[in-house]
Amino acid sequence: MNSILLPVDFSDCSEVAMETAFVVAKKTGARIVFLHSLNLPITWSPLPEDFENFYPEVQKQIDEVNNQLAGLVEIAEKRGLSASHVLTFDDSFGDISKALEEKNHDLVVLCPHGRKGMDKLLLGSVTEKIMRVAKIPVLVVKKQEGKPRFKTIVFASGLEEDTRPAFGQLLKFAKAMGSKNLHLVEITTPNNFKPTREIREKMEAFVAPFNFKNLQLHHYNHYNVESGIVEFAHTVKADLIALATHGRSGLSNLFIESIPENLVKYSAFPVLSIRV
Q1: Per-residue pLDDT at 252
Q2: Are 173 and 273 in contact (CB under 8 A)?
Q3: In the CATH hierarchy, which top-level class contains the domain 152-275?
Q4: What residue ranges do the domains of the chain occupy?
Q5: If we measure between CA atoms, which residue out of 192, 173, 276, 188 comes closest to residue 232?
Q6: How confident is the model at residue 102 (pLDDT cuts 50, 70, 90)?
Q7: Rounded distance between C-alpha atoms, residue 272 and residue 267, angstroms
Q8: Is residue 120 classed exposed, middle or buried when 0-12, 13-18 and 19+ CB atoms within 10 A define those classes?
Q9: CA 255/CA 32 separation, integer angstroms
Q10: pTM (2 decimals)?
Q11: Phi and psi torsions of 59, nearest 5°
Q12: What is the pLDDT of residues 131-148, one digit of tens each?
């Protein structure tokens, strides 16, 4: 992993995302790029330099935000990390989309409860859009007690062949983070019932190409997929739920499009969404 994109709005929730990004960066050697999108009353970026002097209050606001971003970079560097910052003046979703397209990032870390400048990015439908359009993994974190940890990870899957590369990416992440337990779980509901033996054989075939010391396979029954994932995650005391997504098409055949978004909205678990 080379680069982590970290949108910030200087809220408490941004601090949670930052601490998580720091943990991942420390383990992987990745650099952190802080991104802030500043809402201005005028279109700033295309303005000629001479015209910028006509808006001293705007310039003052920009300087203040740049100083805040520089402060975050300094904090990261004091932790022994490499970091930089980017200040943009577009709409927040557009900014992060451009950053994902133009820069060589390997992970996005978000916290969905910002309360300042980027709240539209970090709340509701925009976070969902990012999870759908990002071609790199998106890690959505919540406020939590203690240092972020990834000792126990749940990968919820419908076991489709095209999600196998996402599982491979998760294994690399788990190994880099020093994870001790990895649980692959298939949630069976009344609408997608399959015999236990059939599911077990499919799971064993799914993981056959991979090697992870403490990988456990589970077949879990519930009335719906989201509740089954969350209940199972509580059962194994998971630190993270990971899923494979198909971008705008949602998850694989078993998982409808709303599942990763619902997990982010209604569960307390961090969610790692990996595009296939």
Answers
A1: 44
A2: no
A3: alpha beta
A4: 3-140, 152-275
A5: 188
A6: low
A7: 13
A8: middle
A9: 32
A10: 0.87
A11: -60, -40
A12: 877 889 999 998 776 788
- The CB-side HSE value for 3 (13 A sphere, CA atoms) comes to 14
**3-state class (DSSP) for residue 110:** strand
The count of residues in the chain is 276
Residues 6+ apart with CB under 8 A from 34: 6, 8, 69, 72, 73, 83, 84, 85, 86
Q: How far apart are CA 99 and CA 63, in angstroms?
A: 21
Question: How far is it, in rounded angstroms, from Cα 190 to Cα 201?
Answer: 20
Q: Would you say the CATH fold of 152-275 matches that of 3-140?
A: yes
CATH number of 3-140: 3.40.50.620
Report which of 9, 6, 39 is spatially closest to residue 24, judged by C-alpha positions: 6
Between the CA of residue 49 and those of 44, 52, 56, what are the distances in Å? 10, 5, 12
Amino acid at 75: I
Distance CA 182, CA 102 (A): 33
